[in-house]
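your task:
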Amino acid sequence: MLEAAPASAPSLLGAGARVGADARFDAASRLDAAVDQLTETYRAHYSSLLRLAALLLDDPSSAEDIVQEAFIRVHASQHRLRNRDKMLAYMRQTVVNLARSALKRRLLGLRLLPKPMPDAASAEEGAYAALERDALVKALRRLQRRQREVIVLRYFADLSEAETARVLGISIGSVKAYGSRGLVALRALMEEEG
C-alpha cells in the first residue's frame, strides 16, 4: 500500500527545483563567459592563427577556411574543455590538425590523378628518327668487326673501356684505338648516307 507523501515534501521539491534552476543558470552563465572568452581569443589571435595555417598549407584561401573551421570546432566542443585558460592552445592545435588533414587530402588527390601522357612525337619526327636509326645501323654494319664491337659495347651498352676490353678479350689500348678509328669511320659513313 502506498503511503501519502508528507506535507513537507512539496517544499523540498520546490527547493530542489530552485537548486536545479540555479545550477542551470550558473552553467549557462559559465558557457556564455566561455563563448565570450573564445570569441575574444579568436579576435585577438586571428592573424597569428592565419599565419600558422598559411605556413602549413602555403595557400591563403585554404588557411582562412582552416582557421574558421578551427573556431567552429572549438566553439562546438568548448563544454569539454578542461582548462579555459588554454583556449589559444586549443585553437592552435585544432588549426594544426585541420591543416594536416587538408595536406593528407591533397596528397591523396595527387596520387589518384591520372598520370600525364608523355609528349608524343609527331609522325614526321617519328619517321625521321626511324630513318636516322636505319642509317646508323647500316653504317655500323659497314664498319670492321672489332670497331663495330667496341662502338656498340662502349656507346650503346655503356660499358667502360676496361669492361669492353674484358668482354672482347683485348687490351684497353686496343679498345681506345678501335673506338677512335671506328668513330671516325662511322661519321664518314653517316655523311655519305646523309
